[in-house]
């Protein structure tokens, strides 16, 4: 059986970058139809899938999303929180004002590449991480910390 991607199912769907005209049209269509009717918006966009339209809006065009450069403080917070929480991007993005989960993940991976290559001069990161050339993920997840308690500990919060 041959797998077919959603883009191949829609004849003539574009794979290339959105143009400025498409961005303007998408912004107008979101104002008209809202952020939940991606099927209708995609039909009006000509050759774009609902997912392409949704992702373009959510990650780039939404006025509530910041796509400005990261500050050294933000990078330090990202590393610190990652070392405590791990690669839970939807959780991590909540520590940053107007950054998406994809933006947080992509920037973390950029930091990781810089550290491995030894290009950490452009931002301030903890020296112990620079020396080890890696960022460790936590060994115990936050959920395990929250829900796995030792016998005999106060279990009253389970009951109303």
TrEMBL record:
Q: Which GO terms describe its molecular function?
A: DNA-binding transcription factor activity, RNA polymerase II-specific; RNA polymerase II cis-regulatory region sequence-specific DNA binding
Q: Per the UniProt entry, what are the Gene Ontology biological process annotations, in alphabetical order? A: regulation of DNA-templated transcription
Q: Which UniProt key words apply to this protein?
A: DNA-binding, Repeat
* Gene3D superfamilies membership: Homeodomain-like (1.10.10.60)
Q: Does Transport appear among the keywords?
A: no
Q: Where is the HTH myb-type domain?
A: 10-65
Its protein name is: Myb-like DNA-binding domain containing protein
Q: Which organism is it from?
A: Trichomonas vaginalis (strain ATCC PRA-98 / G3)
């Amino acid at each position: 059986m041959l797998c077919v991607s959603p883009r191949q199912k829609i004849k003539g769907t574009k794979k290339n970058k959105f143009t400025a005209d498409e961005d303007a049209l998408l912004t107008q269509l979101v104002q008209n139809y809202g952020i939940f009717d991606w099927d209708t918006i995609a039909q009006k966009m000509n050759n774009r899938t609902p997912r392409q339209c949704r992702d373009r809006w959510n990650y780039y065009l939404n006025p509530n999303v910041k796509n400005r450069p990261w500050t050294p403080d933000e990078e330090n917070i990202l590393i610190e929180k990652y070392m405590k929480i791990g690669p839970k991007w939807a959780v991590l993005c909540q520590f940053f004002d107007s950054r998406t989960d994809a933006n947080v993940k992509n920037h973390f991976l950029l930091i990781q590449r810089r550290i491995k290559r030894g290009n950490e001069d452009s931002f301030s990161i903890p020296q112990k991480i620079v020396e080890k050339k890696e960022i460790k993920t936590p060994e115990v997840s936050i959920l395990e910390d929250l829900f796995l308690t030792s016998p005999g500990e106060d279990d009253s919060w389970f009951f109303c």
